């Protein structure tokens, strides 16, 4: 298992998405949470590639959720399993409509919080908690109406709360992710602080683009 994980991390670091998936999918019946969450991540990364067809994408997204769920069952105290379970539930929500998306929001928040609790140094989990807050702060009125009809206490958040998480992520690991810089800028804009927005958006613009996502940012 350790050898496979070492090889997988090397491929992940080299951006060899297809190779990584082919390596890990051979171990899909593994009992090891470390292997399983990596397989969930690899399935999701493969789904994100522009060369993946719409049909394949959907299949991979659901597959990723299964692997993440299994990783959690195998080890509840694995922070990465909580993080990827939350990410995969969020992805599946895109296929299941607004009602499921709002219902899932509670579960997603709970698992991100658990991941942060288990590993307060993981900047990505903290960033994703910020994204969660930002999405609910920005939720359009018609979705709020649906949420209020479906749930006694629908999920809500504020831009200030989102900002707190983005800053916490930056403190945990400065300059770790172009998107965190972008969202610091976007959140300051929402709070009408143009000076701070300019500072963070400039940092995002000057960030060295390693991945496709960095370029989009």
TrEMBL record:
Keyword hit for Cell membrane: no
InterPro entries: RMD1-3_a_helical_rpt, TPR-like_helical_dom_sf
GO annotation, cellular component aspect: mitochondrion; mitotic spindle pole; spindle microtubule
Keyword vocabulary terms for this entry: Cytoplasm, Cytoskeleton, Repeat, TPR repeat
Molecular functions (GO terms): microtubule binding
Pfam families per the UniProt record, alphabetical: RMD1-3 (PF21033)
Top-rank taxon: Eukaryota
Subcellular location: Cytoplasm, Cytoskeleton
Quaternary organization: Interacts with microtubules.
Annotated family: Belongs to the RMDN family.
Name of protein: Regulator of microtubule dynamics protein 1
């Amino acid at each position: 298992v350790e050898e496979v994980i070492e090889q997988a991390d090397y491929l992940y670091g080299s951006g060899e998405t297809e190779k990584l998936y082919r390596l890990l999918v051979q171990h899909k019946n593994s009992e090891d949470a470390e292997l399983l969450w990596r397989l969930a991540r690899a399935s999701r990364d493969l789904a994100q590639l522009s060369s993946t067809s719409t049909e394949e994408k959907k299949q991979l997204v659901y597959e990723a959720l299964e692997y993440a769920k299994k990783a959690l069952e195998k080890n509840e105290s694995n922070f990465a399993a909580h993080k990827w379970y939350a990410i995969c539930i969020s992805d599946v929500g895109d296929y299941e409509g607004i009602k499921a998306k709002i219902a899932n929001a509670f579960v997603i928040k709970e698992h991100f919080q658990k991941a942060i609790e288990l590993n307060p140094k993981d900047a990505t989990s903290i960033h994703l908690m910020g994204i969660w807050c930002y999405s609910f702060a920005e939720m359009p009125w018609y979705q709020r109406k649906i949420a209020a009809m479906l749930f006694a206490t629908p999920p809500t958040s504020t831009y200030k709360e989102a900002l707190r998480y983005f800053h916490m992520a930056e403190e945990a690991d400065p300059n770790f992710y172009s998107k965190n810089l972008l969202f610091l800028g976007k959140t300051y804009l929402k709070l009408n602080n143009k000076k701070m927005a300019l500072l963070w958006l400039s940092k995002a613009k000057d960030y060295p683009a390693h991945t496709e996502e960095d370029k989009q940012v």
